[in-house]
Specification:
259 residues, alpha/beta, 12% strand
Length: 259
């Protein structure tokens, strides 16, 4: 199995850095081929601008249309094309990052913004009365798996159903459903380390063991059963979930997960 790890933390000696290193050694020992995109070490440019699209940048800049033209022409910048090639190479993608202000670090969001271009991660497939493009279960990255490994500063109770920060599954939904599942990746339940800011050296071995065991199930674990867009659950073109498809009492993001 070929695995791409995208790592987003500025400190190599951080908990995130240790989890990234452990993922590399664990997966390689298990026979995986592993590539790492260490965004801070790479000096990754985190903002989209016209320079990404060269001669295909319009004035005024139109990010979706311009990125699609540059992708089609093969003229995206070298760093972006390299990351797209890694994604196409991989069977699985692991995103390793700390939860900062309820989402991914800016450098990782910038990786998504620049790499997930039009005609690569979105804007693909047939648009008709019965289909709304290839997305949410279909798309360029279909057939691959994705896993979030996330460190969180607060305790688990802060991210529970009644916790003040909201359920962790809700906070991660825009990433898991909107970034990863959208272009076709099958998303596995996340690996979340709570209380990361106060973790002691004595507590780390248990976390490392849990992470090792999760990594060893990368090929076999059941993905989150998100609903597929074009397979009968949604009205098209409104993309509203059809009445009666949800489990009794289910609302919010949970509507988009099969019972």
């Amino acid at each position: 199995m070929k695995t791409l790890i995208v790592h987003a933390h500025p400190e190599p000696k951080s908990l995130n850095g240790s989890l990234k290193d452990l993922a590399v050694s664990t997966l390689e020992d298990a026979g995986h081929e592993v590539r790492v995109s260490d965004l801070y070490a790479m000096g990754w440019k985190a903002v989209v601008d016209g320079a990404d699209y060269g001669s295909h940048a319009s004035s005024p800049l139109k990010v979706a249309a311009d990125s699609g033209r540059a992708f089609d022409a093969g003229t995206l910048t070298e760093d972006v094309r390299a990351e797209q090639e890694k994604l196409l190479w991989a069977d699985a993608v692991v995103l390793q990052f700390p939860l900062w202000w309820y989402t991914m670090p800016a450098i990782l969001k910038g990786w998504v913004d620049r790499v997930f271009t039009h005609h690569f991660a979105y804007g693909v497939g047939e648009h008709s009365d019965t289909r709304y493009g290839e997305r949410f279960g279909e798309g360029t990255l279909a057939g691959r798996r994705a896993l979030l490994s996330v460190t969180v500063g607060g305790p688990r109770s802060h991210y529970a159903a009644r916790g003040i920060n909201g359920p962790i599954d809700d906070l991660l939904f825009p990433i898991q459903h909107g970034v990863l599942y959208y272009p076709g990746l099958d998303v596995l339940p996340p690996f979340v380390v709570y209380g990361a800011d106060r973790m002691t050296a004595e507590e780390y071995p248990a976390v490392a063991e849990a992470w090792t065991q999760r990594l060893l199930t990368l090929e076999s674990a059941e993905p989150i059963p998100f609903r597929r867009q074009n397979f009968g659950d949604y009205e098209i073109p409104s993309l509203s979930l059809k009445e009666g498809r949800e489990a009794a009492g289910r609302t919010g993001f949970g509507l988009h997960v099969r019972a």
